[in-house]
Structures are given as structure tokens and as C-alpha cells.
Write a structure and sequence with these properties.
Elements: H1 3-20, H2 24-33
Length: 50
């Protein structure tokens, strides 16, 4: 990966991070879509540490 490609990737990643963290609702939606939270907003079993 060239330095230019890396910078473009990092810019896209930062834009995504800014969008996902722009509100509590968007953050929760992202965590649910990633499987970190269940539909009730609780930690999924694999992240609950039990």
C-alpha cells in the first residue's frame, strides 16, 4: 500500500468514525450491527465476560 493509498484509507476511516460517533443512536446502531450489543442494547454473550 502506497503512502497515498494509506492516507486515503485513513481519511475514509476517520470520516466513518465521525459519522458513527455523531450521536448516541448511531453509535448504538453500529455496535448492534457489529454484534457487540444485542437488540436490547446489552452486551452480547461473547463480550459480557461470563
Amino acid at each position: 500500500m502506497s503512502e497515498k493509498e494509506l492516507n486515503e484509507y485513513l481519511n475514509e476511516l476517520n470520516a466513518f468514525k465521525k459519522e458513527v460517533t455523531s450521536s448516541k443512536e448511531k453509535s448504538l446502531d453500529f455496535l448492534k450491527s457489529a454484534g457487540i450489543l444485542d437488540e436490547n442494547g446489552e452486551l452480547s454473550p461473547q463480550y459480557a465476560g461470563e
